[in-house]
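Structure, all two chains, one model.
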Amino acid sequence: MNMPVLQVDVIIPNQTKYLDLIGSIGERIAKELDHYSGDKIALAYHLNLVLTEATANAIKHSKRNDPKDTVRILIHIEDRELNIKVYDHGQGFDLETVPLPDFEHPKADGMGLFFIRTFMDSVTYSKLPNSNVLEIIKYL
Amino acid sequence: MTAMNFTLEKLNNYQLFSINEERLDAHNSSALKDAILHVIEQGETQIIVQLEKVRFIDSSGLGALLSGHKNAAAKAGKLVLVSIQPQVLSMFELTRLNRVFEIYADLTEIE
């Protein structure tokens, strides 16, 4: 039985105080997935974490000095595919050059993308004409 | 400056930070990092961070605690963690930071 389509489209100011809101949306969505057969409590934490990390990353890479700058987060669930797109208006970065954390010599930064890659099935980062998009997919 | 809700008190030879936030994330972790560093710079290098109320931590929260651990260790001190919620602990395990920190179930376990 297919899951019904669910889409949430949010635009937030470029400020970290909204991370709680975005993470909480992910957590609530996980709890609404009636057909998900895995551990929903774990999925709720993972979606909270992935959305928090992806949005924090977009804020970090956005135009810091422009108070009108925004980050858009689009969550779309259809046919057992959970698709998250996080759009930023910054310079962008090369996802392929982000290394795995060195667990033997841990550093205070660089774990965010590791979490996203660990808990999700696909992560890509693309430049669009007027923005960049981090696209994350998880198969439910 | 972002506020971080915590209490700081003396407990035996330790400075005890009790975090009164449910989330430790990129919004408030730098404030915690700065507060711990401030205490270490004042010569207090034995630190406990009590995480009982924290039910969510992200990479920047882990980073703030790791920074505190490194700064304390650099001055021959230490930063230990107590009362970590299971899902938060799983983030330490995933990043193997559970091997870096001394982690205790509650304050009575710390000598």
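Chain A has a mean pLDDT of 91.
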